[in-house]
């Protein structure tokens, strides 16, 4: 039987596309966490800003909670609809809208995939530089809602640095335009920056004006084999001193083992405990010589055991696959993920303490490490053994996360570097934010969403 609330929604928004089949409810009601059983009321797929406004006005009047939905590639439960919420999917709003050659901006609908944004920017001879492995399936709206980082933060920064303006629909159904593409704007509060990273709890992002930049200079990719965890930061310092780094990513032998089992090619004849893939500007002989000097210096100090430099775009892609293929390669193990960050200067001490903690806490589980060392971001993936029940595995992992949160608090770090808080990490928010900060965050939420209907239960509970 049709829910009468949906009949009233169609009256409020004639022609709106709705999905209510059980398979659609399951597909759209969850993200990559797969931890909660999806149970949305329905899936609304607006095609225009006006339809988004009508949906939110209806939801406010009816008291129906709404979960904004992009590509649902998140890892923190931020797009989960498990309690009868209406999922508002922006997948139909996926087009480029305008390019400004003078301002070098690209305005797009929020449902546009990141890879499509990249391709559109390239058509104009420019790039949108934020990038990560889920580029083909994640949406630009979701990237903005979580302030996504990725593999080139060391050179370009997070999503936040590349947003010139936003159009956002509030729960009252009002369309607000934030910043309007201005470079300088000191007229009051910058709500654009407030919406970036808000995880869909303050408003629904419907359009974004993105800053573009020149394509990077010609680059090379180098894969390094390291003998120990402790030398990682020395290698980073040696390469950063001599080169214009675009990326500096590390992973372990266990991570490589899973990627090789998933079809990648082995880079070396021998197995090494740790690896780094780094990309750097190499448009002339001097830059290439500097790269070799950095490599040789690290070899002389015993910080690097082996290495290979890409000789073609195809080989560079093969080397990058060793890092970017990790998440897909371990997905079948239902990994419990920690995504943490500290200041780069604190990374050596934090790495040592965290490695000891994880080694003692998870002797029975396989742990896969990788991370964006150049920006202080570490990913810890605990793989679930097939014979271990989901609930038992989760309980053990949550206990260790509490200990890890304590370490982060001592190092003034963050429990979520780039995946958001969502449902998964809200219990640890106080390890990253003080009580006065959290109180202010809740006050902001109430100002934007007085009935707490927009993505309720995410980040914190009111």
UniProtKB/TrEMBL annotation:
Keyword Metal-binding listed? yes
| UniProt key word Zinc | yes
Alphabetized UniProt keyword annotations: FAD, Flavoprotein, Metal-binding, Oxidoreductase, Zinc
Necessary cofactors: FAD
Tell me the GO molecular function terms.
Answer: (R)-2-hydroxyglutarate dehydrogenase activity; FAD binding; metal ion binding
- For this protein, the Enzyme Commission number is 1.1.99.39
Ranges for domain FAD-binding PCMH-type come to 36-215
Which Gene3D superfamilies does the record associate with it?
3.30.465.10, 3.30.70.2190, 3.30.70.2740, Vanillyl-alcohol Oxidase, Chain A, domain 4
Q: Which GO terms describe its biological process?
A: respiratory electron transport chain
Q: Which reaction does it catalyse?
A: (R)-2-hydroxyglutarate + A = 2-oxoglutarate + AH2
Q: Tell me which family the UniProt entry assigns to this protein.
A: Belongs to the FAD-binding oxidoreductase/transferase type 4 family.
Assembly and interactions? Homodimer.
Recorded protein name is: D-2-hydroxyglutarate dehydrogenase
* UniProt organism field: Stenotrophomonas rhizophila
């Amino acid at each position: 039987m049709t829910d009468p609330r949906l009949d009233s929604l169609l009256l409020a928004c004639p022609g709106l596309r709705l999905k209510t089949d059980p398979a659609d409810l399951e597909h759209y009601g969850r993200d990559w966490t797969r931890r909660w059983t999806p149970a949305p009321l329905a899936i609304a797929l607006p095609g225009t800003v006006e339809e988004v406004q009508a949906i939110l006005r209806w939801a406010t009047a009816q008291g129906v909670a709404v979960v904004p939905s992009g590509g649902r590639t998140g890892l923190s439960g931020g797009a989960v609809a498990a309690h009868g919420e209406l999922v508002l999917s922006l997948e139909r709003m996926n087009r480029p809208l305008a390019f400004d050659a003078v301002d070098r901006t690209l305005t797009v609908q929020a449902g546009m995939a990141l890879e499509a944004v990249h391709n559109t920017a390239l058509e104009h001879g420019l790039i949108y530089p934020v990038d990560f492995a889920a580029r083909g399936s994640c949406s630009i709206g979701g990237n903005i809602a979580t302030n996504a980082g990725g593999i080139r933060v060391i050179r370009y920064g997070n999503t936040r640095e590349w947003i010139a303006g936003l159009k956002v629909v509030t729960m009252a159904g009002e369309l607000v335009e934030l910043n309007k593409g201005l470079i300088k704007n000191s007229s009051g509060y910058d709500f654009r920056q407030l919406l970036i990273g808000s995880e869909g709890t303050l408003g629904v992002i419907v359009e974004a004006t993105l800053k573009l930049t020149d394509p990077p200079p010609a680059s090379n990719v180098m894969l390094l084999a390291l003998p120990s965890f402790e030398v990682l930061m020395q290698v980073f310092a040696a390469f950063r001193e001599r080169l214009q780094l675009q990326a500096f990513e590390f992973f372990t032998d266990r991570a490589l083992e899973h990627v090789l089992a998933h079809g990648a090619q082995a880079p070396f004849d021998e197995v090494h405990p740790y690896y780094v893939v780094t990309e750097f500007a190499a448009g002339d002989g001097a830059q290439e010589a500097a790269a070799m000097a950095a490599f040789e210096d690290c070899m002389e100090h015993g910080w690097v055991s082996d290495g290979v430099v890409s000789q073609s775009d195809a080989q560079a892609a093969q080397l990058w696959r060793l890092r970017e293929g990790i998440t897909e390669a371990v997905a079948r193990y239902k990994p419990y993920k920690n995504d943490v960050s500290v200041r780069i200067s604190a990374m050596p001490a934090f790495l040592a303490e965290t490695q000891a903690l994880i080694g003692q806490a998870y002797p029975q589980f396989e742990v896969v490490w990788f991370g964006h060392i150049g920006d202080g971001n570490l990913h810890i993936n605990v793989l679930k053994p097939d014979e271990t029940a989901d609930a038992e595995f989760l309980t053990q992992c949550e206990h260790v996360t509490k200990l890890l949160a304590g370490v982060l608090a001592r190092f003034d770090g963050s429990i979520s570097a780039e995946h958001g808080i969502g449902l998964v990490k809200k219990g640890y928010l106080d390890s990253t934010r003080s009580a006065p900060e959290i109180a202010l965050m809740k006050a902001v939420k109430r100002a934007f969403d007085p009935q707490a209907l927009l993505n309720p239960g995410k980040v914190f509970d009111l």
